[in-house]
């Protein structure tokens, strides 16, 4: 689907590129993911970020992420400045809860012990104060781990939700503001109650493992509460952070502490295909235009099981108050909004997709040097766990892609991975610098981006939007600097458009529900020259909010295992290539309902 007219005009009239004026972003988010001390004893060094919470505080944005030693501040959702706080727990913060109410930002860490609630009226300066010095301890193993704070603006009541377990449920409790947000009542052991448990026997997407294929008992975590049109949407992540199917779901109620009903359209955020797979355990927030966003966690998992990055996707509520997050082309460039999109239809969030297609998939790559068998072809396979390593980490090392023909290049993303690194603290020596060059003949080169001209910062997922489209067949990464002994890149992604027409719509799509209603068998016809396909589905023909992306070199049959028992589904397909996206196919049912 092409961007809306106002965004096309915005693109045409924009000033030359500079970081302060960047109009697009690309998942995984381009922030300075921190090295940390977690695996110091095992001598495993890696950057990571997970369990994000973005808070709109005084019309500016604050991002809190697991074990980062601080937070990030942004005025535009694309340029993030890392903030070092004036006080911080020695053990750091896992999955912190954050909330803005009036002029105060509240912050609380995951814990099974007694820990404080912090407040700040100047978070842009890193200033924290103790608000509740010791929140009372709950019974053993109850938590609160993965907490979320919620203030009901209509009643002025306060609540906390939490849970991270494959044994315990999501819990909730009212907090007493008159006593600095301690648990309401006189007995903390009786202040909380269960909200809901996972039910993988009815909810296919809650099953564990890659593509929900593992019988191991799944995990629920990452509670978050959003109030919309008088309804309370208690969200949660499942079934496990280390899988492509990590997503967010919701229960809906009329009271902050329930009872809650399972939303039949779950999961609300789901991205099992593509480069940045998984989008579970995040939060839902509104930007300065009133648009909703849903954040989440995507998995890397090469150095350590908890090696991750973060994503954010447009979200909202449709005319029937159905919650959704739009992950279609979720790891391709998207515009930042300049106004509020139409809340009556979730698909209107598609207008943020730039229409810039992936030009680099499986394209030939040549490196200036290679360490062992860690070759350059790994940077175009869209797998974050395969990578190229240069023989030495030195300026002048290059990666060169041949796009096969001239294309309009509009943006690049360079994703680094920590291969045999020795860094455990992100100090001033940890930053990223490189140049991007383009050529039409592989002889004459033009510099189109130069990170040495910008302030130094670390960029494990460096996304660079070019100041204007550049016609090129060859695109080169020229290395300048990364910290540590090795230079390792797991993706060199090039975005833009070819000169031809968008592909044809696949002629055939079939969907057949299995006897086990959690599953459906899908098959489709391939399109000549297509790069990939999006299977889109939902609980009504006009609510195809879910997307599963497949590459053309993958099989054209698939067992989808993410469905809810007793809920009819509808499906459609679109093909995409380097020129654009096909018209969406005719919607088909799953065989469980008459059309």
Give a concise summary.
The protein is built from 1 helix and 40 strands. It has 595 residues and is an all-beta fold.
Number of strands: 40
Shape descriptor reads globular
- What is the count of DSSP helices, taking H or I runs of 4+ residues? 1
Strand percent estimate = 35-45%
Distance linking N and C termini: 26 Å
Largest beta sheet, briefly? 8 strands, antiparallel
> Please, what is the average pLDDT?
94
Radius of gyration: 23 Å
Low-confidence runs (pLDDT<50, min 5 residues)?
1-20
Derived structural class? mainly beta
Helical proportion, percent range:
under 10%
Describe the protein in words.
The protein has 595 residues and is mainly β. The chain has one helix and 40 strands. Strands 26, 27, 28, 29, 30, 31, 32 and 33 form an eight-stranded antiparallel β-sheet that branches. Strands 12, 13, 14, 15 and 16 form a five-stranded antiparallel β-sheet that branches. A hairpin with a 6-residue loop joins strand 19 (247-253) and strand 20 (260-262). The two termini are 26 Å apart. 50% of the residues are buried. Residues 1-20 have low confidence and may be disordered.
């Amino acid at each position: 689907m092409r961007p809306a007219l106002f965004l096309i005009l915005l693109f045409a009239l924009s000033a030359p590129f500079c970081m302060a004026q960047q109009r697009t972003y690309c998942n995984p988010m381009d922030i300075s993911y921190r090295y940390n001390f977690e695996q110091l004893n095992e001598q495993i060094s890696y950057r990571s970020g997970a369990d994000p919470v973005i808070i709109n505080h005084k019309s500016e944005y604050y991002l809190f992420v697991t074990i980062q030693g601080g937070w990030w501040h942004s005025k535009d959702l694309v340029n993030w400045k890392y903030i070092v706080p004036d006080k911080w727990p020695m053990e750091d913060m896992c999955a912190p809860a954050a909330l803005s109410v009036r002029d105060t930002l509240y912050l609380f860490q995951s814990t099974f012990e007694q820990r404080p609630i912090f407040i700040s009226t100047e978070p842009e300066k890193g200033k924290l104060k103790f608000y509740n010095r010791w929140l009372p301890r709950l019974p053993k193993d109850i938590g609160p781990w993965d907490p979320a704070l919620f203030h009901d603006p209509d009643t002025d009541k306060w609540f906390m939700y939490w849970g991270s377990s494959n044994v315990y449920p999501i819990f909730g409790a009212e907090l007493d503001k008159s006593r600095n947000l301690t648990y309401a009542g006189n007995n903390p052991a009786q202040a909380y109650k269960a909200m809901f448990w996972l039910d993988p026997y009815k909810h296919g997407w809650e099953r564990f493992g890659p593509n929900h294929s593992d019988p191991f008992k799944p995990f629920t975590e990452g509670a978050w509460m959003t109030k919309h049109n008088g309804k309370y949407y208690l969200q949660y992540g499942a079934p496990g952070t280390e899988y492509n199917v990590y997503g967010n779901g919701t229960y809906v109620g009329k009271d902050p502490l329930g009872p809650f009903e399972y939303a039949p359209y779950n999961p609300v955020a789901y991205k099992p295909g593509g480069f940045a797979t998984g989008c579970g355990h995040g939060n839902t927030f509104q930007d300065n235009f009133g648009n909703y966003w849903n954040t989440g966690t995507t998995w890397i998992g090469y150095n350590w099981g908890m090696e991750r990055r973060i994503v954010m996707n447009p979200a909202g509520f449709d005319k029937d108050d159905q919650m959704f997050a739009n992950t279609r082309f979720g790891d391709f460039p998207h515009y930042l909004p300049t106004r509020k999109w139409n809340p009556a239809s979730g698909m209107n969030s598609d207008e943020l997709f730039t229409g810039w297609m992936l030009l680099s998939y499986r394209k030939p790559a040549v490196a200036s040097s290679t360490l062992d068998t860690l070759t350059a072809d790994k940077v175009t396979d869209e797998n974050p766990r395969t990578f190229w390593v240069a023989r030495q980490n030195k300026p002048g090392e290059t990666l060169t892609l041949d796009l096969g023909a001239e294309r309009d290049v509009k943006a690049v993303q360079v994703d680094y991975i920590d291969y045999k690194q020795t860094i455990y603290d992100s100090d001033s020596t940890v930053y990223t610098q490189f140049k991007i060059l383009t050529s039409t003949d592989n002889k004459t080169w033009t510099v189109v981006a130069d990170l040495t001209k910008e302030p130094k910062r670390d960029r494990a997922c460096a996304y660079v939007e070019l100041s204007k489209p550049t016609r090129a067949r060859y695109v080169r990464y020229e290395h300048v600097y990364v910290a540590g002994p090795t230079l390792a890149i797991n993706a060199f992604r090039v975005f833009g458009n070819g000169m031809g027409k968008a592909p044809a719509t696949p002629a055939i799509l079939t969907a057949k529900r299995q006897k086990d209603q959690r599953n459906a068998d899908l098959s489709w016809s391939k399109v000549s020259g297509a790069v990939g396909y999006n299977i889109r589905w939902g609980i009504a023909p006009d609510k195809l909010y879910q997307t599963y992306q497949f590459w053309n070199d993958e099989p054209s049959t698939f067992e989808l295992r993410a469905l809810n028992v007793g809920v009819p589904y509808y499906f459609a397909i679109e093909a995409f290539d380097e020129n654009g996206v096909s018209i969406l196919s005719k919607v088909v049912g799953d065989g469980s309902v008459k059309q």
